[in-house]
## 1
Amino acid sequence: MKKSTSLIAALLFAGATVASTAAMAADISHAPEALTLLDGTSDFGSSFSAGNNKNTFLDEFTFSFNGTSDFDGLVSSMSSNAHNGLDITSVALYGMNGLVSSFQQLETGKTDRWTLTKTGLAAGAYSVKVGGSAVSGKAGSFAGNLNVSAVPEPTTYGMMLGGLGLLGFMARRRKNAAA
């Protein structure tokens, strides 16, 4: 009796394990995509076909730049209602040494919107990772935009101030010569 009870319990446990594995969400992530910054900006995004209810994704978009720069990013997804499309659960900026900063969620539900402004990023390679899941069997997509603008070096400010000083000196000299 004791052996049959143990055997039944083991079979139930094995069946539950198989059932829970089958119920786990599938990974529908796309391969990492390299972005090209044109005039310091780039658009990116992903689309997911119908039939992916509760499946998860973590899509990565890589880019690099030279010189210290400021970063602005926006990621959004819209659907007809909060029970269709995608649920974006995380958006973050990564550098060569790991997480730089997480985007701030501005809106969730029918529209998911995330944004980040980061100043003074060092030159190098970076990536934006967007994670979430499909909340219905319908198709869904998200889109993003990033802007990277160069921050002038301190020597640039010094040259500008020197030029303004020289212009002031010349204007004063002309004024004195005219008097």
Note: The beta strands are 33-34, 41-48, 56-65, 69-78, 86-95, 98-102, 104-107, 111-121, 124-134, 140-150.
## 2
Amino acid sequence: MRKFNQISLEQINKYSSNTLLGHLDIKCVEIGDDYIIATMPVDHRTHQPMGLLHGGASAALIESIGSIGSTLLIDLSKEAPVGIEINANHLGSVKEGSVRAIGKIIHAGSRTHVWQVDIFDEATDKMVCTGRLTVMIVPRA
């Protein structure tokens, strides 16, 4: 398995500040040998009309973790990661607080990466969503 490029959590979160990640307040909080952990608040930014965590916000969190992880596995001067497929199974609901997502790389090929991401309610540690993201690694033009 390839190792992640070394970059600080502060650099990752600063790089993401003026993106969807910044708007949703998604924060990368830990990077391990083959995983990434990020958090996201459950509030007016991430609610659907019934006051629950929006499935699209969960999908955005899944894609964010996989994209960050794939970025850490490649040479950004030569390649770029692009999400090509995502799925999410919503297993429960959250009304407030925050969620924690744990993303693990399950395939790190030269042209595709596959990430498994599980999302938990931080207050109860109950899994509320599980998903998978496929990332294509494309040459930079």
Note: Strands lie at 27-31, 35-42, 79-90, 97-108, 112-121, 127-139.
## 3
Amino acid sequence: MKNEKGITLVELLAVLAITGIIVVVIMSVFSTGANSSERTASRQQLQQEANLIVEQIRASYLENEKSDLVAEQFKVKVVGDELKITSIDNVEKKTISTGYQYKLAETAGIIEITLDRTEPSRFYLEICSNNQCFEVQMSFSKLN
């Protein structure tokens, strides 16, 4: 008669293999969830920064052009990792965002655009950070 009170080596190896598979699946789910959460947070941060940029440009666009102190046109320009609003003669500079990669046109290489307060102006912005990008396309215009 056999002594059947213990666990055989085969049974122990089977339990360890099944446990290992379950642990790998659980870790994979947690890892995927953490990565997804990080990507979502990064995208929300880019979206908030893009909204802030658009609001600051809109405020500049809506300045009263009837005053002699406000020119009809202004520039939005990329200088390194900064996005600035300047006058046409590049005298006034206001940094509106910093720390991201900016693209002001769908084609690469354009580092400044001119917006005219007296007519509708199309605007494109792509803002990127940590391999995440957010794109804004809009038009600025005023009712006269």
Note: The first strand starts at residue 73 and ends at 79.
## 4
Amino acid sequence: MKELCIIIIYVLMFLKKSIITVDCFLKKVMLVLIVLAVGTSQAQQVHSITLNEAIKLAKENNKNILKSRLEITLSEQNIKENKEQRLPEIELNGMYSRITNITEFRGSGFLKDKVVTKAIPEIYEVGTSFAMPIYAGNKINNAIKIANQENQISQIKKEKTENDIQLAVVDTYLAIYKMMELQKIFEENIKEEKSRLKEVQSLQKHGTVTKNEVIRAELQLSDRELNALTNSKNIKIALHDFKTLVQLPENEEITIDTTQNLDEMNGIDSYDSYLNKAFKNEEMRIADQEVDIRKTELNLVKGNYYPSINFFGNYGFNYPNYKFFPPNPYLYTLGQIGVSAKFDISGLYKNKTKVQMANTRIQWQENQTAILKDKVQDELFKNHTQYEEILEKFVVVDKALELADENYRIVKLKYLNQLVLITEMVDADNALLQAKYNKISTRIDAVMKHYELLHTAGAMPNEI
């Protein structure tokens, strides 16, 4: 728009300074209007987004989901790292040094009768060695098992994160949907209020109503306009949050698609059917995996009671040969291969406390799982009961809207015949507005509560 304004200013300046015919002037004015129309249409272009599109975008781009995918990659790399403990460790080593002659003191006194034997002044060694574990109290296998269990947890966490983000998208989307429907109600009501204000002003001119009634109508209109303004700003804020949630560019203008019909939630499955699913939701599966990890850690600690056995070997070039004395000035090679065993006797009494701690961690984790199970059950019962309540409200709010509409019609007719005061007209108008909002709000709340129920039960649909 800034560039558009600059163009218009330059064109107007040119028109001012130029001596042109009427025909030429009109052509240039038309050019300015075309440029203005094109720029305005581009500036007002808004991308309408459906709920399914929003969920798809969030699953592809949301930073929390990307983070969970990286955690899966890390867990897979951890499995690979633990498996590599089975591979042999191979070392290549070398050494070079210079030594002094060997000095012996053969006398009975301190530093008496010194005898010096010449040594070969240079020593160097080049060699290689390897060691491969054969048995280590099953520690390597248990470490790999823990890594696999952690990988399963990261997979479930990714699934949970996706479902959490999906629920957040649905929640934000429906909240915007509700506000946009409210905005429509406000706009319709504002038109009605403006029409009523004209009627009241006309009646005042004829002396049939007082100035007070005109002021009351103006206040009612002003109140509706303020409500509409506040609601429109709230929609703008919610849309900005929505863009962040689905990771759309901040400068992209979007709105939600309100042309699609919301699913009518006319029924509900039994509580037990949801409960059976809930005990297998993401949180419960993670808790079960945590218990399994604590049990594997116990087996890992018990491995300290057992010896470790390794297959080893080494081979090297050495100079000079100090296997003999005096040393021989020859390069020689020596290698060996065999099996080594090590048993930490102190582990028999030091490891006892570690085993007790591992058992305590299992008990603690099992208790946490039981606490979580109660929490999930309570949450599910609350959502199921609230969902039933909302469904039961459908008949009530529909009937309330019919009554409010009929009441408004009657009061309006009486008001036009000067049989009631404007305060009764305002009350009837407010009751009708509230009834309209209650109907659409209850439908949207039912959809939202349905997905909250599915989320708690771990049964969120891939598409909505």
Note: The longest helix spans residues 347-416.
